[in-house]
Amino acid sequence: MKIHFTKRAESTYRRLPPQIQKKVDKQLLLLASNYRHPSLRTRKMGGEDHFEGRIDKKHRFTFVVESGDIYILTIGLHDEGLGKN
After folding, report:
1. Mind telling me which Gene3D superfamilies this protein's record contains (predicted)?
2. pLDDT tens per residue, range 26-82
3. Domain harbouring 20, CATH code
4. What is the 3-state secondary structure (H, E, C) of 6-67?
5. Domain span including residue 72
6. SS3 category, 56
7. For strand 59-66 and strand 43-44, is the pairing parallel, antiparallel, or unpaired?
8. Which residues make beta-bridge pairs with 51?
9. How many domains does the chain have?
10. pTM (2 decimals)?
């Protein structure tokens, strides 16, 4: 599957510290090969194809799967980055 970033996710990614960017990159490689990989701890959110994935204990990302492609919507702190606060 091919991964695409929304403008918001791309902007957020650029502002992350380099060590977190590296973790994001690692998780996105797993995501591209299997979006339900156990290390991602993928959880279905509202909507048919909306999911949340884990970067580390504090960071998460949200994504949708459409037509065989993955679109990263948000990246951030667990609650803050997912629009829960």
Report:
1. RelE-like (3.30.2310.20)
2. 999 999 999 899 999 999 998 778 999 999 999 999 999 998 899 999 999 877 545
3. 3.30.2310.20
4. CHHHHHHHHHCCHHHHHHHHHHHHHHHHCCCCHHHCCEECCCCCEEEEECCCCEEEEEEEEC
5. 2-80
6. coil
7. unpaired
8. 44, 63
9. 1
10. 0.85
